[in-house]
Each structure stands twice: as structure tokens, then as C-alpha cells.
Amino acid sequence: MFVTKLSRLLDKAAGWIMVAVMLLVVSNVLLRTIFGSPILGTYEYVGFLTATFIGLAIAYCALQNFHIAVGFILEKFPPQIQGIVEIFTGTISLLFLALSSWHIADFAGSMIASGEVSPTTRTPFYPFIYVVAFGFLVLCLVVFLKLIESIRKVVTEWTQSLQA
């Protein structure tokens, strides 16, 4: 499925970005210690890359259910009630994440308009903000797929209970 492949691809990119962060930090420490000359803007680059890493990895995390879920109370209810709660929380999550993605992208646009750049390296903020917004958009697709799955599950359970 497209969303699954896209989520995996973004997660792999996030992994490489984390490797880049690690190499940058280690290189900075070694250069500072051995030669007394650190890499200019390491703090900014680590911040940019970490935000990018999280934005790209979050959809795959949700797809694999690696997030924290509090379901021990919900497990005591019948499957139909559990399904309805899943649909409700999925709908709320989808709306929240869609609005978040939209506002993050809008914020990136305002960064372009204002010409905001980082203080040390003069790197523009907006490309990294757009990547995070894209990550949230893919997360929306994952939540949407899970919502459709929950709806199908509830409809199947209701149909089976009516036939019994």
C-alpha cells in the first residue's frame, strides 16, 4: 500500500538523518578536542536535523503501533464499545493532526515571508518546517487508514452480532 511504503521510506530517511546527527556531533567533539576548532553552527544543525528526523519517523511509528496506548480500561468493555471509542479517538486525532499539519505548513510560509534564518549559520528555517509538516501529513494518512480499519471492524462485529 502507498501509505505503508511512503512511511517506510520516510523512516529510512529519518534513520540516515539520525546517523548524520551522530556523525556531526562526534566530529564536532573531536575537532574541538583535538584541533580546538569546532564546527560552526553544530547546535543549529543538530536542532534542524532532529526536528526533521522526528517529523519523518512519526508516521511509521504510528503505523507500527510503537506509540504509547492506554487501553487497559478499554479492554474491559465489549468489542463493539472498544470499536466505537477507537473510531471516536481516531476521528479526533485525524482532525487534530490535519489542522496541525496545515498550521505547521502555514508557519513555514510565514518564515519565508519574514526571511527568518538561524543566527549563526544564516540557514533558513522554512525547509525543515515544511518537512515536519509533510511528516504530519503522512501521519494523517496513517491515522485515516487506521480509522477506516476501525470502522470496518465495528461494522463487521455489528453485522455478526445481528446475524447471531
What keywords describe this structure?
single chain; mainly alpha; elongated
Q: What do you see in this structure?
A:
This protein is mainly alpha-helical and 164 residues long. It is built from 4 helices and no strands. Helix 1 packs antiparallel against helix 4. The mean pLDDT is 93.
Describe this structure in a few short sentences.
This protein has 164 residues and is mainly α. It has helices at residues 2-35, 42-63, 79-114, 126-163.
Outline the fold blueprint.
Blueprint (H helix, E strand, L loop, with lengths): L1 H34 L6 H22 L15 H36 L11 H38 L1
Residue fraction in strands? under 5%
Roughly how many Å is the radius of gyration? Answer: 21 Å
What is the helix fraction of residues, given as a range?
A: over 70%
Class by SSE composition: mainly alpha
Regarding quaternary structure, what we see is single chain
Given as residue ranges, the uncertain stretches (5+ residues, pLDDT < 50) are none
SS element count, helices: 4
Please, what is the average pLDDT? 93
User: What general outline do the C-alpha atoms trace?
Assistant: elongated
Number of domains: 1
Question: How many strand units?
Answer: 0
**N-to-C SSE series?**
HHHH
For the largest beta-sheet, the strand count, sense and barrel status come to:
none
